[in-house]
Amino acid sequence: MRTLISPSLPPLFSLHLPRPSLFSRALGASRYPLTASAFSLNRLPTNPHHSSASRRELQTEAASKPFSAPPGEIHVVVGPMFSGKTTTLLRRILSERESGKKVAVIKSDKDDRYCAESIVTHDGEKFPCWALPDLSSFKERFGFDAYRNQLDVIGIDEAQFFGDLYEFCREAADKEGKTVIVAGLDGDYLRRRFGSVLDLVPIADTVTKLASRCEVCGKRASFTLRKTEERETELIGGAEVYMPVCRSHYVSGQGVLETARAVLDASSQRNAPRDLEATSLSPPF
Ligand SMILES: Nc1ncnc2c1ncn2[C@@H]1O[C@H](COP(=O)(O)OP(=O)(O)O)[C@@H](O)[C@H]1O
Ligand SMILES: Cc1cn([C@H]2C[C@H](O)[C@@H](COP(=O)(O)O)O2)c(=O)[nH]c1=O
Ligand SMILES: [Zn+2]
């Protein structure tokens, strides 16, 4: 296999680099081709074989290289409904703000459950937010200048509803130095990937999967069961439509619900009148 770019890393990392790589030449760098920001020198592991003098030299030289913005971060918080995603997002945002960072929170305007201008947890805690149809409109709404020069941390709630999630987060963290904290459902009620939340994993710094408590047995709940007959992927709702469940109650509950949905489909095809309100199932299954 032919290597197209060699890892032209500073001595701290390097193996044997006989000549500059295509990559380093493209960057126009001579000895240490990557910028301080690109490798975040503050976070370099300490090499016991490396003297502190050469480390200092490395830091000084690399730190003098230009880079448009310091590197940002992406933190992803997923889990089923009622697992504390919004609560976690809120706590992290508040703690960033307390440490002097300028923060903003965005949620999808599809989620109109509690309050249009705030993210709201299932326990009623609130924080003001921008309710937007997509993330690409945020910079303009917030103000390009304020976005670039003042904003440090961006929280995104209900991330599964944003089609441009990946592009927005990558640009914000890689190019604009923002810390992005993303909360969303990893899976829908059929446990399929939801939106592009999972696409963030390879570009994230941290990924946390939270759990709730199974509404049937009280065990750890990693999945969301939809209690009603609707089959569309996106269906806004709370505890009247969804419940957190453990694996066994997901499997048994989903089996019962799919049978019920199939029965309803068959009967609606026969045009039989049916009371739709009565089609929500309750545990135990
Ligand atoms: N089945 C449930 N119905 C309503 N509220 C619940 C249920 N299970 C847990 N909760 C509450 O929801 C809180 C989490 O809310 P939130 O942070 O909004 O979760 P998420 O954003 O993951 O849906 C929990 O601390 C708990 O008090
Ligand atoms: C499982 C599932 C959920 N939704 C919707 C329901 C809620 O409006 C949000 C999730 O809110 P939460 O903050 O995580 O409680 O998503 C959906 O549209 N489709 C689904 O399959
Ligand atoms: Zn259970």
TrEMBL record:
Coiled-coil stretches noted in the UniProt entry, renumbered to this chain: none
Record bears the keyword Chaperone: no
GO biological process, one term: response to stress
GO molecular function, one term: ATP binding
Residue ranges annotated for the AAA+ ATPase domain, each copy included: 71-204
Class of this enzyme: transferase
Pathway: Pyrimidine metabolism; Purine metabolism
Catalyzed reactions per annotation: thymidine + ATP = dTMP + ADP + H(+)
UniProt-annotated stretches for the region Disordered: 43-67
Protein EC: 2.7.1.21
UniProt keyword annotations, A-Z: ATP-binding, DNA synthesis, Kinase, Metal-binding, Nucleotide-binding, Transferase, Zinc
Keyword Membrane annotated: no
Gene3D superfamilies for this protein: 3.30.60.20, P-loop containing nucleotide triphosphate hydrolases
Entries under Pfam families matching the protein: TK
SUPFAM superfamilies with a match to the protein in the record: Glucocorticoid receptor-like (DNA-binding domain), P-loop containing nucleoside triphosphate hydrolases
Family: Belongs to the thymidine kinase family.
Protein name: Thymidine kinase
Organism: Brassica napus (Rape)
